[in-house]
Task: structure prediction
Amino acid sequence: MCALSHYLEREGIQTTGISLVRENAVHMRPPRSLWVSFPLGRPLGTPNDAEFQHGVIAAALELLARPSGPVLADYPYDAPAADASSAPACPVSFPKAVDDDAGWRGRLADEFALLKPWHELSLRRRRGRTLVGASSDDVLANLQRMGELLDADQLPLDDLKWFKLATEDAKAFAIEALTAQPGEHDHRAVQRTLWRETQLGAALAEFHQRFQQDPKWRLFARIVAPREAVAAAGDASNNTEANP
Amino acid sequence: MVRLSDLPSYEQEHLLAKNSATRGPAPWVAPAKPLAELRIALITTAGLHFRDNPAFDFADASFRPIAGDEDADNLIMTHSSVNFDRSGFAEDVNLVFPIDRFRELAAANQIGSLASVHYSFMGAGLLPEAYKQTAVQVAGLLKQDQVDAVFLTPV
Result:
């Protein structure tokens, strides 16, 4: 973002904007930047809160009137945190025991069936809005193909574009299903559930590990699963080994 | 609060590498009009686009147009990073791309007007210099649209 503001301003267009990582703005010195204390992925602070979003926008727009710069301002308010005690509970009870006989393909398909009614509820509550649809194939077909690859101990090296979009859709499908109920969801809890309890999270952590093993694919591994998921998968594996 | 220390080490390294990049003297455009007269465009680096646009690649400095009269609820996200929350964007497009908020500002005459077209980039995996060419291209498009100022959102 800092790079874009630099180049646009150099072309004569005023820029202002939001910075989520303060150290970055300090070093990059974009012409005008409002640092906010919000989580990554939430530059306007909180969803469905027009008043709060307007406050953030007004503070960033105010910087356009400053006579000289660069300007880095700190937004004084944190985003309202979701009340964990009143946040909707996870609607799905994921199996604790892994069905090894089903293989990855079977387990991912079973989980899709478990989540599908909740995704349908999500579509109704969100009036049809969904982030699914990056891939030209449907979510179930993509999950089955991902499962087949894991079961065959293969990586999709000849079709990485498909893999990226398939994983994007699978995550969107799961997140929307997990947050289908009305109410203010705790995004940290959603992330924990996605990466620590679902077969999708486990599958992506497994893909990450397999990409990671080849130095050529280590960079790619980073976009498959976050550190948290890989650590969680490692913990689960260690526990299994310790308590067979 | 997001600190570098909260991020995975490779994300820290990537961000620090960006910090060390040199891009010439810091540019500055002095204010020429009050906010209520500015024509404003939104630019996001969240990797947003409509389904019939090409998805963003793993590292990709290209951009996608977002027409101001399109329904932003149809935007999807193909950002390469896995280290940020996506559930908020699933709940409200304005959390990342605050188009409704800016429409409200324009309707209330608090800004002059909104651009005809806004733009989306995908901010991951590349150093700042990689965006120079496409940023200059977008600047040209913004000027054609008489845009005075840009509001940038990361993800």
